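Notes taken during the Thursday session

The instructor put the following on the board and asked us to keep it in front of us for the whole hour. The protein is START domain-containing protein. We were told not to look anything up and to reason only from what is written here. First, the residues (316 in total):
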Amino acid sequence: MAWPRLMALQWRITRNDAKTFPLPDDFFPAVELSDEQIQSYETQVNIIVRNALLEYERHEAKGAYPIYGSPWVSVGTEGSLTAIRQESPEGLSRSEFRVYGRISGNYRNFMDFHYAETSEQLFEWNQFMFGYTVDAVVLKNIHKRSSGKPHEYLGIKWTCLQPSSFSRKRDMCYLEYLTYTKDELGRHVGVRVTLPAEIDQCPDLYRTLKVKRVKTHSVTIVRPAGSSSDATQFFAMTENEFAGLSVSAKNFRKIMRMHNDMSMYVESKQISKQGMMSKANWEDMSFVATLDVIDDEVAVLDEKPQPSVASTRIQE
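Then, after some discussion, the predicted structure tokens were revealed:
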């Protein structure tokens, strides 16, 4: 199948192109963390998860069709997902955003989709979802599945996206945490947390490379939808700072459509894993000519605002 090989080849080309982006493999210094820093990160994300589960309980107490009053404003619905937002005095460039409802697919597949230990894997899932990933780097795997920790993953990552050739590149440097736990009603849930990582090894690139730093604090909770293993209850909260960029309801609807299509992305990634070739066997560079066509087909969103800033930020 050509698709998995295209994704692998595209990542290889992107990571070794002679242009400014992607950045050289050694651009970011190695991230070294003390035991105290790691413990601080774990404590921080555990508090975030606990508070998010309490908020999720309040959300579910509203019933099957939750109604949010002021200051929440409806964004709209896409499929079975609903979105609402709460603006700050700064306007839409800084706001809180929630999406909830049901999506197709097993909740564990949603978690697996985001799991990435390597820069290649990180680039791959971002490209599957967005279609306009410029670069992606795993800066530090703090804990992995093989680490024997109660959680699935803890690490620091960097991604750079460019929604169109006419828009400015946007990057994010963030701590990511993946875990399985139980909610307040004892049900199994998966939780994904991201929050800004402000560390010396991941500097703001605006002055040097004209890249807008977008900051994000998000929590996504997924669980089986009743007795069905093929459907997932989805609840996501983000606090956003879109780097001064204007954001419309249309952008938020694109985010919902993206999550409605999650099962498609998961399936594509699984196919890619089955068909992935070793780097030594990736096809000749002459195959690159077809990539522009594929890019057009996989560009899921014309422009997607990056979920962004939270009051909580990771300090080195």
